[in-house]
Design brief:
Layout lengths: L1 E4 L2 E9 L4 E6 L3 E6 L2 E5 L11 E4 L10 H10 L2 E4 L1
Parallel strand pairs: 6-7
Antiparallel strand pairs: 1-2, 2-3, 3-4, 4-5
């Protein structure tokens, strides 16, 4: 869930109750996660090369028709791909 202000994300949250996990962030406030009752700040990785990056996605069944070949090229360029 996200709140957009003038079409720009201001805050957002992702919750996975079955996993007991939650992630949230706010523009200029940082990003956080909670797991097992513990909250900690999170950040993006320090990876600077695409070939060292990990790519995760949920599915390609809807809305990817026009860009499918670009997505496949991206999966070929990264270190690891995980689909959920």
């Amino acid at each position: 869930i996200a709140l957009l202000v003038d079409a720009v994300p201001a805050v957002g949250v992702v919750s996975a109750p079955a996993l007991g996990r939650r992630w949230w962030a706010g523009d200029g406030l940082g990003a956080f996660t909670s797991f097992g009752g513990q909250t900690r700040q999170i950040s993006v990785s320090g990876v600077s090369e695409l070939s060292a990056a990990s790519l995760s996605f949920s599915d390609l069944t809807t809305g990817w028709e026009a860009d499918r070949s670009k997505f496949i090229a991206l999966t070929d360029a990264v270190w690891r791909v995980r689909g959920y």
